[in-house]
Amino acid sequence: TQALAAGMPSNPNKPLEHGEANAATPPAGVTVPPPSRLPGASTLSEQNFSNKTGTAALEGVNATIDTLDRVRVDSAGQVLTTNQGVAIADNQNSLKAGARGPALLEDFILREKITHFDHERIPERIVHARGSGAHGFFECYEPLTKLTKAAPFKEAGKVTPVFVRFSTVAGERGSKDTARDVRGFAVKFYTDEGNWDLVGNNMPVFFIQDAIKFPDLVHAVKPEPHHQMPQAASAHDTFWDFVSLMPESTHMLMWLMSDRAIPRSYRMMQGFGVHTFRMVNEAGESVLVKFHWQPKLGTHSQVWEEAVKISGADPDFHRRDLWEAIEAGEYPEWELGLQVFTEEQAEQFSFDILDATKIIPEELVPVQLVGRMVLNRNPDNFFAETEQVAFCTAHIVPGLDFTNDPLLAGRIHSYVDTQISRLGGPNFHELPINAPVAQVHNNQRDGMHRQAIHRGRVAYEPNSLAGGCPFQAGAAQGFTSVARRLDAKESADKVRIKPEKFADHYTQARLFFESQSEVEQAHIGNAFRFELSKVTVPAIRERMVASLINASPDLAARLAQDLGMELPPPLPKALENPATPEIESSPALSLLARPGDGGIRTRKIAVLVAQGVEGASLGKVVSALVAAGAVPRLIGARLGTYVGIGGEKFAADATMENAPGFLFDALVLPDGAGAVEALDADAHTLEFVRAQYWHCKTILAFGASQALLSEAQIPMTLPDGAADPGLILADVGDADAAIADFIGAIGGPRHFGRENDPPKA
Ligand code: HDE
Hints:
Elements: H1 2-5, H2 14-17, H3 64-69, H4 108-118, E1 131-140, E2 159-168, E3 183-191, E4 194-201, H5 214-221, H6 237-244, H7 250-257, E5 271-272, E6 277-280, E7 286-295, H8 304-313, H9 317-327, E8 333-341, H10 343-348, E9 368-377, H11 382-387, E10 400-401, H12 406-422, H13 507-514, H14 518-533, H15 538-548, H16 553-562, E11 604-608, H17 615-627, E12 631-636, E13 641-643, E14 649-651, E15 654-655, E16 666-669, H18 673-680, H19 683-694, E17 698-702, H20 706-711, E18 727-730, H21 735-747
Helix pairs in contact: 5-6, 6-15, 7-13, 14-16, 15-16, 17-21
The structure holds CIS-heme D hydroxychlorin gamma-spirolactone 17R, 18S (HDE).
CIS-heme D hydroxychlorin gamma-spirolactone 17R, 18S binds near residues 127, 131, 407 and 414.
């Protein structure tokens, strides 16, 4: 407005396009100071003065908001323009010579639009292509300065903004969320001393020990190259061919066949940094560390057949779940846990801490909780943020360091390298989602898509022409590597070999299996059976079972029987006599070890409605669920409003057709003779009830609706004859007690007591 008044050429829309921060327009006749000294200005250029410094965001606030504001675009109330800002008069018709004549080459508006469209896609990630992200913050509980000088851990209450991306590994960008797969758990900390990416998974071990095997692993698990099948699945010949020839994968296979591979929600899974890292304090002393993320909601999984059905009805199940929770203000939260240990301790372990196929049992090194991470903002734009975010294991900050894990070494190279082709050049760090909150000053120049406008003629160091700037920070402020090598005692001859303990491929696979509850063990067995039954080459199945004998003879024997084959002799072990393990069982490895607080916040509950429902009890249950933080959904045969016996009105949120039973965590069946009759007449109802029952979910049936259970052939007791705690039959007169039972039963583990293999007819 100032500029307009002074008669300067100005575009009043510009500040709105790029956020308020850039609203400063120079008044006429005033010498404009360089943007680097304009308070409030924040371009991507490398400034001497920047409001990007300092990240003291309050709880629930993202310090990245301001820094991204400069690139947010909001077109409300604006005219349509070309990329050059030229207003477009007609967006319906191309320019032609006459109404029926040929289109003209001079139509730059058409050509710009089509050309841009032609180039809208970038290569998807070679692995972890399918993912969902969110913004949030990390908050440190206590200063960890004794262990590390890393910025996020400097003070109690210190807040560091983060962006997190969860992903599946094998499927393509548009594939389903609920595949059996590892989940990526990648966290970008925008610390005030540079970006730190903790690029982890929801399982603490990996398939291979050395990066040189990664392309082989990925080629084996991805769709087979001749026909591109199967999508987002490990249940095929090439995967099992490879892993059965790579016994080092056995431990990871146990995790992959466990229910960890089919999480209920991204919000309900753990995360792990996998490798051993180092933490370094101001004095230069270092310790070894493993990173853990523990979900506040506890760890919960789906059951396999549920996951299969969900992938058809809602391939975006996990993406939707994360998005909806954050939109609803139900911010997912994790605590960061550290396992801190010394090199001297590490040398005593029966396994090698440089081997990414091994965990450090919590019994040996307890997990201490040092902070929490809250995700409190959905991205504004999926492509700009979630797709373009570039996580790199090479991104660490002073106070952290790598170890000699040979898998990590390959990753330090791979992630930066892959971004260069995926994001089109070496300047991907300038994309807003990747740009650090800390300032960037160096003499790197040019390259594709350079955004920064570097001032001055000096792009080298040492220099005198720019006063020596930017200058080296020195060891006190800058990043230094820990000089100590883990294998200091060994010779440094160039070799292509592994340390001996790496050859113990089975001890921890056994530890994991033996630490699972009976139900979890059964699920692992079922998963192996399912996957191996999809393998068409009998020799591969045999080799896999022969290998599993070394981890669990029971599991292998069960599999041989289930796959209709003779139990083969065990596969010869690489290391006949591995070191005796410290422990035989680690309860912390069971999913049931972290049930959460038993609450039902954000759980989705289906409440079936029809004409003539008993409205009072239904009203009560809905209110109680809402009060407990759950998300009840009224499901009818059709959309519209259903009227209860007492004249209550229930507007259906969804239908049994568009939201089938397996999408919900629990089910309420209403009383009311007319309603039950109407529901009974629709086969969807019985399918709904069966899906809930067979996936071991809680069902509350009021009065007359109990007939639907027998109609759906639901067994009223468990296979062992005991009462089923997940089937709550109630009279409407007794609604309050029943509702309390119902809520309690949803908050606990699923009702696995119902399971029978094969399911009882
Ligand atoms: Fe990755 N991995 N990886 N990986 N990884 C990628 O980087 C790679 C490994 C993980 O949400 C790629 O940006 C190698 C372990 C996650 O954007 C690529 C090796 C762990 C993500 C790559 C591994 C991971 C990736 C593909 C063995 C858990 C998704 C696109 C040496 C600790 C990050 C990209 C996101 C992505 C390479 C093994 C986790 C190709 C070479 C172990 C969560 O660079």
